[in-house]
Amino acid sequence: MTTVSERATLLEYLEHYRTTFEQKCADLDADQLARRSVEPSTLSLLGLLRHLAKVEHIWFRITMAGEDLPRLYATAEDPDADFNGAVGDPDVVAEAWESWRREVAFARDFVERADSLELVSRHPTRDRISLRELLVHLLEEYARHCGHADLIRERVDGRTGP
């Protein structure tokens, strides 16, 4: 029996969900990615992509690394800009993929450089959270949204599965 570290296990599952989400969005054009699930919901694959970029950004850059940055896809006037701004424009889609990939790369690097899963967040006003807790939270976040993505993708073009 092979013993795998806790960190490796958490990261393997997180990468699986990131890849699954990416596959759910594969081979769709901007209008298909922006197609809303059901009225009046603003839920779409593009919205989820923007949301997941925002989640990675908030948790790794702002909360864990302590960077003082404005949040992606959120303003005081529109805290749900990740979904509200998910329109069928190829430039919006390209920017969303660029943001998500950039934030995932930052997260991967951050976790790789962390000495331990016991590393605690540095954000001055949020409750403290360990890297372990954050990775478990992201697993839940991605798993939930992969379920949403599965249903939305089936609605868009009938495709099911990975």
Profile the largest sheet: none
How does CATH name the architecture?
Up-down Bundle
Beta-strand content bin: under 5%
The number of E-state strands comes to: 0
Class from helix and strand fractions? mainly alpha
Q: Write the element-wise H/E pattern from the N-terminal end onward.
A: HHHHHH
Spans where pLDDT lies below 50 across 5 or more residues: none
SS field, number of helical segments: 6
Q: Would you summarize the structure shown here?
A:
This protein has 162 residues and is mainly alpha-helical.
Would you kindly provide a written description of the structure presented here, covering whatever features stand out?
- The structure is a single chain.
- The chain has 162 residues and is an all-alpha fold.
- The protein has a single domain, classed as Up-down Bundle (Four Helix Bundle (Hemerythrin (Met), subunit A)).
- Helix content is 62%, strand content 0%.
- The chain is globular.
- The protein starts with 5 loop residues before the first helix and ends in a 5-residue tail after the last helix.
Descriptive labels:
single chain; 162 residues; mainly alpha; Four Helix Bundle (Hemerythrin (Met), subunit A); 62% helix; 0% strand; globular
Topology summary:
Blueprint: H1 6-25, H2 30-34, H3 45-64, H4 81-84, H5 90-113, H6 131-157
